[in-house]
């Protein structure tokens, strides 16, 4: 089944209109200084990903493929995907940047301890998966 | 994705494949759609100039939509990271020859740049916002709202451009087109997808305790434990709102106003009126929520003192000095709802100052920012 070009062009046009509405909302409701700040954040996100995070992940991937024994590679890669992405999204709570002395009900956990528990759980899962793979390899296929 | 061009950039296409990108992209697209719709609901609920009043039932409606908004947005972080990882080689694709092809390529790359920038912005600003961290000069709500339209619009453009690729990738086996063996022991495509879903699930479980009570113990990265003064968290303290001790002391009165008529009530007068206790959730825009037993005067009884007709809107004024929500409008539907209460007590105790002592509004199915605290004036709108 193929979708013709016309419906796709129509869909694309709808998308352009919706995005243009958003751009108009963005530009018409705030002053120049606020817009500059929003622009900095928009650009910084892409730059941090494309220039910092993505190359670091490429290097880590090469490292895993060179240094880690084959049996542990897949479990380590999977563990790194889980722990790496969850750690990144936890940066605001780990840094406690929004903490306020007048509101102890916000950020009221020990996030470092929580992260260590999470990291330990992921580590255990990686070790168990590696051992299971090693065992399977030793047994000849029936 | 074109296999040949990806390989020239020096990347293997085994995992960085259309098969993986389309599958992660599909789930990510659904999550963005959920975030967009629940975000629109929240935006509408906070807009006092709505043409149609926000519904008052179910009482837990806003709790669910806003909880879903933050939970889904959090799940998007691993999904977006993996999606960007799979398509990263495309960044180094050699531009095509010929002016027309080049123009198409530039247009497509621009639309991708807008999509990626707005998507990262939405997730990063949302995650910072739920922790009360505002490291920026822009105003969060209008910016997050405007860029939601930009993100969804550019996502629709992206789907329109990639539709044939998406269809063929989703219609085929995930290992379709696998040309090369991976290095020994490496992650398979299925393994990568499994790890991605696991990462999204862990992200949800680690944070959703903010709004899902039975997850509280395991949500080690949630912004709230759900505890706080009198067993319920707060977002804005009395100190942050600039509440003066004198204003809530013996001098405190509540004015109920309609046109020329004003009825003035002390806290004792309010306590002497018929009291009702309602179990209602409070759901903050920042994504946390909780339930409490609220005791106080039915709002309709107060408005009846000035003989306001059914369906009247009521402007609620707080003693709050700072913040955008020192005033709110209760639309007719909320005013007339039996459950809407001017609460004087929470969970059987007199309201703590941080919960809005001497009196606060609690209404069903309403964003927390509109559950105005330290209420000093109720004015029936003409």
UniProtKB/TrEMBL annotation, chain A:
Transmembrane portions of the chain: 9-27, 39-64, 76-94, 114-132
Matches recorded under SUPFAM superfamilies: MFS general substrate transporter (SSF103473)
Keyword annotations: Membrane, Transmembrane, Transmembrane helix
Highest taxon, organism lineage: Bacteria
Name the UniProt record assigns to this protein: Uncharacterized protein
Species of the source: Nocardioides flavescens
């Amino acid at each position: 089944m193929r979708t013709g070009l016309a419906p796709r062009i129509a869909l694309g046009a709808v998308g352009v209109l919706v995005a243009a509405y958003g751009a108009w909302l963005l530009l018409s409701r705030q002053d120049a200084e606020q817009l500059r700040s929003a622009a900095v954040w928009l650009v910084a996100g892409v730059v941090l990903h494309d220039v910092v995070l993505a190359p670091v992940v490429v290097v880590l991937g090469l490292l895993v493929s060179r240094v880690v024994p084959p049996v542990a590679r897949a479990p380590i890669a999977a563990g790194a995907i889980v722990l790496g992405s969850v750690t990144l999204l936890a940066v605001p709570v780990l840094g406690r940047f929004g903490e306020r002395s007048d509101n102890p009900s916000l950020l009221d956990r020990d996030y470092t301890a929580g992260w260590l528990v999470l990291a330990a759980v992921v580590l255990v899962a990686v070790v168990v998966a590696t051992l299971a793979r090693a065992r399977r390899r030793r047994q000849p296929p029936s | 994705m074109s296999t040949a061009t990806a390989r020239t950039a020096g990347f293997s296409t085994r995992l960085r494949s259309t098969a993986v990108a389309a599958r992660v992209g599909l789930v990510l697209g659904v999550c963005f759609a959920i975030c967009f719709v629940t975000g629109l609901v929240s935006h509408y609920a906070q807009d006092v100039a709505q043409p149609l009043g926000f519904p008052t039932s179910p009482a837990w409606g806003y709790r669910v939509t806003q909880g879903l908004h933050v939970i889904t947005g959090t799940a998007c972080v691993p999904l977006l990271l993996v999606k960007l990882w799979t398509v990263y080689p495309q960044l180094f694709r050699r531009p095509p020859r010929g002016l027309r092809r080049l123009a198409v390529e530039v247009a497509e790359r621009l639309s991708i740049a807008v999509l990626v920038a707005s998507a990262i912005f939405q997730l990063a600003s949302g995650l910072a916002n739920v922790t009360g961290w505002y490291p920026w000069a822009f105003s969060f709500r209008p910016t997050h709202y405007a860029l939601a339209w930009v993100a969804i619009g550019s996502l629709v453009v992206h789907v329109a451009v990639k539709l044939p690729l998406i269809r063929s990738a989703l219609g085929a086996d995930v290992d379709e087109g696998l040309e090369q063996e991976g290095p020994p022991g490496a992650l398979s495509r299925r393994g990568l997808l499994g790890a991605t879903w696991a990462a999204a699930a862990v992200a949800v479980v680690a944070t959703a305790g903010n709004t899902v009570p039975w997850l509280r113990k395991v949500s080690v990265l949630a912004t709230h434990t759900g505890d706080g003064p009198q067993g319920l968290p707060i977002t804005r303290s009395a100190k942050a709102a600039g509440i003066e001790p004198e204003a809530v002391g013996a001098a405190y009165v509540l004015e109920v106003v309609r046109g020329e008529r004003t009825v003035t009530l002390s806290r004792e007068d309010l306590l002497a009126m018929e009291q009702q206790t309602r179990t209602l959730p409070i759901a903050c825009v920042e994504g946390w929520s909780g339930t409490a037993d609220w005791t106080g005067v039915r709002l309709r009884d107060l408005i009846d003192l000035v003989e306001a007709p059914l369906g009247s809107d009521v402007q609620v004024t707080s003693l709050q000095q700072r913040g955008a929500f020192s005033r709110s409008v209760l639309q007719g539907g909320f005013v007339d709802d039996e459950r809407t209460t001017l609460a004087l007590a929470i969970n059987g105790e007199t309201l703590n100052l941080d919960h809005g002592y001497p009196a606060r509004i609690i209404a069903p199915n309403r964003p927390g920012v509109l559950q105005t605290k330290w209420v000093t004036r109720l004015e029936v709108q003409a």
